[in-house]
Here is the input.
Amino acid sequence: MIQSKQASANHSVWLLFTVQKSRFHFPIFYVLLLLCLASCATPPPTALPSPTSTPPPIATSSPRSQATATQEPTFIAPTLAPTPTAIATQTSSNNILPIFDTHAHYSRNSWSLYSPQDIIAKLINAKVARALVSSSPDEGTRRLYELDPVRIVPGLRPYHDDVTTTNWETSEKTLPYLEERIDSPMYVALGEIHVHVQNIESPIFRNAVKRALARNLILHIHSDAETIRGVYKIAPDAKILWAHAGLIESPQTVSQVLDEFPKLWTDISIREYSIAPNGKLSEEWRALFLKHPDCITIGSDTWIPERWTSYEKIIEHDRAWLAQLPRDVAENIAYRNALKLFGMQDAGDLEK
Ligand SMILES: [Zn+2]
Ligand SMILES: [Zn+2]
Here is the structure.
């Protein structure tokens, strides 16, 4: 029932291949994918603008309990964190939908243009109450988390130095990098990771997944439909957040895959202008949202600084097509599904 695509060994080739096969002819989609190819390269060594060069400490104790595994951590003093009341004021006034952005990055390529303070200000301006952030390297995420441990929900990705989207599943540097960090209670996810179906048997990939699941982390996976099926074969109980709704998969295919796996969620990052060309919600995406109102989430994917530059517009665009859905479905996609995914249903400040 699902038309999967075979991923090639090279991520860039895979992207080009799938673009040719995809139904998308919207020019911005091609521009984004070309830029995405560039993102696979190791970014230039840009210093992170910060008052200090020492990253915040990584806690190695006090793992979250089962019941509170994904709630806000407390091991870094929230000196600049907004209070829940402040967030409620920022997100719910004038009936504006709170947004949980489940796909953000603050990677090295953005550090010279935007400071951590700039990024937090952008989230506040866009009235984004929570953001799942993962970065290459991880230091970017920790800088944001240090500033705002309520709004920033950290994910851990293995990319650093010469460990990239294309070689992390086989690099001997991957597991030590993850091991150094993964016991920190601040992380709720492994990823966003780029998974290639031919590497699913790799011991490094399997160990990374095993380690993440032992910590009750969700897997935030950038892949096609076939790869999602492959991951579920080795990790049938995993909670997976499927990035970009498969990026090149049709809404119909996404719907089929969601039908197959009850613990699968998907974020719509990068798809926003296909979902609502010229602002009008497309009928095929509307059908997907109405059929699966409980497992789709908003995502921006700020993988290049230009996405941060246009961040507020991306979120505004998302709010515009969400407004064309029934309010309860829109609220689910905007933030409730993400709260459920991360076990944060008690984040009552978003509901006020
Ligand atoms: Zn991605
Ligand atoms: Zn991404």
